[in-house]
Amino acid sequence: QQCILLETFCFKIGMAYINHLVERGDYDAAARKCQKVLGKNMDLWENEVYRFKTIGQLKAISQYLPRGDLRLRPAIYEMILHEFLKTDYEGFATLIREWPGELYNNMAIVQAVNEHLKKDPTNSMLLTTLAELYTYDQRYDRALEIYLKLRHKDVYQLIHKHNLFSAIKDKIVLLMDFDKEMDKVVEELKDRPELLHVYLHKLFKRDHHKGQKYHERQISLYAEYDRPNLLPFLRESMHCPLEKALEICQQRHFVEETVFLLSRMGNCRRALQMIMEELADVDKAIEFAKEQDDRELWDDLISYSIDKPPFITGLLNNIGTHVDPILLIHRIKEGMEIPNLRDSLVKILQDYNLQILLREGCKKILVADSLSLLQRMHRTQKRGVRVDEENICESCHTPILPSDTAQAFGVVVFHCRHMFHKECLPSPGNVPGIQYCNICSAKRRGPGSGILEMKK
């Protein structure tokens, strides 16, 4: 009984001292004293917390609250977190890092943070704290998305710690914002080749040159995981080693890709041979020959097709605008049955007639344009030319008009606007009655020709 009385006496003394400190405004010391005076009495703790709330000093008592085996109701911790969230983002972030996630209702705090982010969506401190809350709640994909947006240094640690490689696949585009850490991203993903391919592919689509040192590695990745995009990659990449790409495509028997690489490396005849022998696609072979626009390729195509009636039909239908069809028709063996020959010949005649019509139409346009330009030139040359005292003779460089205009004088003005005294002009050329401007004539025929003519 004496012990109980002593404890009661000590408690009263302790509370009196806490009250004294509060009255003095020494709230931190009062809150620190609560740890010794209140002990494990949860009711007293909660009463004291509400008192500190009443006087607006929840922050002072927050760091001394029980957080071990002895804990208050979650509502108490949430009340303090809400207070910090209203006035002190940094203090709120500190409490989230220091307090175990079991002390409070994590979802309620997440919701409160999201409400604040609606007002300030780019606040990095709030976003980082939200990511930590998602991590406590094991919602790692949401935390990862925030870390990626913030380019947070812990993003790779989070991925490895919680094996989030599958979750990052849909957000791989965000990794491309880590420009300075591209090598680190590639190193982190090297053991996940399919994920590495997704990252490098999206990086290439964004900028063909940024990841150029990985283009050689990408050839194998495309071949293994994404063949449909291999050919577009080979077409668009300027840093892809062609020999390495050709080796990989030949090993895997990728005919279309091999054809492209052979043509790009200048071996068009071999490329055409592959199209005809391995693809047996006359339309593709014709299209390839059209792209290269090489007479030798057309000869090879005709030679290969001459004993294959379906190929001959394809050529007859498409060759007319590039090669004279007669060259092909003369080489067809007598008696060979060619499917749809009549239709093919009709098409050749139609194409020929179309070419004739196009030529005639172009000729009419040229004639009409020439006549229009001639008429314009004639009208221009009929216009008068102003001659006054400011003009000079292009030969003697004296004023073109004499000081005494009452005297007889002769002036020659060419359509090019060069002017000469009549007596300063050289003798006419070989054509009687036709005089050319000495200056313009020299420019057309070469330097010095005008002077030579004057000497003659």
UniProtKB/TrEMBL annotation:
Keyword Transcription regulation part of the UniProt annotation: no
CHCR repeats: 169-314
Entry keywords, A to Z: Metal-binding, Protein transport, Transport, Zinc, Zinc-finger
Transmembrane portions of the chain: none
A family per Pfam: zf-RING_Vps41
Keyword Ribosomal protein: no
GO molecular function terms listed in the Swiss-Prot or TrEMBL record: zinc ion binding
GO biological process: cellular response to starvation; endosomal vesicle fusion; macroautophagy; protein targeting to vacuole
CDD domains noted in UniProt: RING-H2_Vps41
Any single Gene Ontology cellular-component annotation: HOPS complex
Domain RING-type: residue ranges: 393-441
InterPro entries: Clathrin_H-chain/VPS_repeat, TPR-like_helical_dom_sf, Vps41/Vps8, Znf_RING, Znf_RING_Vps41
PANTHER family (UniProt xref): VACUOLAR PROTEIN SORTING VPS41, VACUOLAR PROTEIN SORTING-ASSOCIATED PROTEIN 41 HOMOLOG
Name of the protein this chain belongs to: Vacuolar protein sorting-associated protein 41 homolog
Organism in which the protein naturally occurs: Cyprinus carpio
